[in-house]
Write a structure and sequence with these properties.
- There is one protein chain.
- By secondary structure, this protein is α+β, with helices and mostly antiparallel strands.
- It has a single domain, classed as RelE-like (YaeB-like fold, 2-Layer Sandwich).
- Helix 1 runs antiparallel to helix 2.
Length: 106
């Protein structure tokens, strides 16, 4: 079973999503989304390779990262030595081709 780690940047992403939804949709919606994101992330402990390669990276030949979708959010992660590292949680409606390389370069 893989251990799942959330990088500080991804944790910040989740907190920002929560804050946005709290203001826009209310506490119930914000809490439900965070629970859905957490369930998706934790599902990786049994099937870490189940996510697809992000097409924005795959087109450049990069297969170090995978993603899960929790529409409209995209959860980006790496599997390293059997452990899962969540590196970003981004709004899939944004320009991921621009955001993702910047984020993953950090």
């Amino acid at each position: 079973m893989a251990k799942v780690h959330v990088a500080p940047e991804a944790d910040t992403d989740i907190a920002a999503i929560f804050e946005y939804l709290l203001g826009a949709e209310g506490l119930e919606v914000a809490e439900r989304l965070v629970e859905e994101l957490d369930a998706a992330v934790q599902s990786l402990n049994t099937l870490p390779e189940r996510g697809k390669y992000p097409p924005e990276l795959l087109s450049a030949g990069i297969t170090l990262f995978r993603e899960l979708q929790c529409y409209p959010w995209r959860i980006f992660y790496r599997v390293v030595d059997g452990d899962v590292w969540i590196v970003a949680v981004l709004d899939g409606r944004r320009n991921i081709a621009q955001l993702l390389p910047e984020r993953l370069a950090r």
